[in-house]
UniProtKB/TrEMBL annotation:
Residues 7-129 form the Glycosyltransferase 2-like domain. It is found in: Cell membrane. Keywords: Cell membrane, Glycosyltransferase, Membrane, Transferase. One of its GO terms (molecular function) is glycosyltransferase activity. Pfam families: Glycos_transf_2 (PF00535). This is Glycosyl transferase family 2. GO terms for cellular component: plasma membrane. The lineage of its organism: Archaea, Methanobacteriati, Methanobacteriota, Stenosarchaea group, Halobacteria.
Length: 237
């Protein structure tokens, strides 16, 4: 089977200090098919870094600054790949990242793929909690149908993405989980535990793991316990 055309979409909001490292990791991809990289940039300096990097095919300016979901949708609308891959501007992907994601689509029923997250920052606390919350939690929840492709390590078959309407622009929180659960109506969503990415733990450091865990737990209840959970407004800005 010939390699599929793939497009990587990266939303980047004021990420000029970190974006180049992300782009360097995308430039190192070992992939035989056609690969394009699309940056959706908010901020003049972020756009400048994106346009200056040789691996970037298109740098779109996001004047709305409405969040990662709308930015990913805009990048996807400009993409030409059969597979859409999404990562973030504070994330470093391994050289096999695109290839590992795309190989799953040889199975015709696969519509989405996700993988684990590891912290870029050093420290036992980060490593242990990332392993627990961004790997083992997925291994437990995925088999029972609660699929949650993390936004910085996920891919979608283009036809399925269009069929479900992409990311919900109104959601500023758990928009990746929302997309994953809607994708299940179109086919299989696969968890590849051997396809990790390294991403920044700055949000965890700023907010705290306990507070972040509670916020996500309450949000997850909106899907798991219909009628007894927070309203959809919980997910909006």
């Amino acid at each position: 089977m010939p390699a599929l055309d793939a497009s990587v979409v990266v939303p980047a909001r004021d990420e000029e200090p970190r974006l180049e490292r992300t782009l360097d990791s995308l430039a190192a991809q070992a992939y035989d098919g056609r690969l394009e990289v699309i940056i959706v940039a908010t901020g003049t300096e972020t756009a400048r870094v994106a346009r200056a990097h040789p691996t970037v095919d298109r740098a779109l300016i996001d004047d709305r600054g409405a969040g990662p979901g709308p930015a990913r949708n805009r990048g996807a609308a400009a993409a030409g790949g059969d597979v859409l891959l999404f990562t973030d501007a504070d994330t470093v992907v391994p050289p096999s990242w695109v290839r590992r994601h795309c190989r799953h689509y040889a199975a015709g029923d696969v519509v989405g793929v996700g993988g684990p997250l590891r912290p870029l920052e050093d420290g036992v606390r980060h490593r242990v909690l990332f392993r627990l919350l961004s790997d083992w939690w997925y291994r437990v929840s995925w088999p029972v149908g609660f699929v949650q492709q993390p936004g910085c390590n996920c891919s979608v078959r283009r036809t399925a993405f269009d069929a479900v309407g992409g990311f919900d622009d109104s959601l500023g929180f758990l928009e990746d989980t929302d997309l994953s659960l809607r994708l299940r109506r179109e086919g299989a969503v696969v968890y590849d535990r051997a396809c990790p990415v390294d991403t920044s733990a700055r949000r965890q450091e700023r907010v705290g793991y306990g507070s972040l865990f509670w916020t996500y737990l309450v949000g997850y209840l909106a899907y798991a316990v219909p009628g007894r959970s927070p309203s959809r407004d919980y997910f909006r800005y």
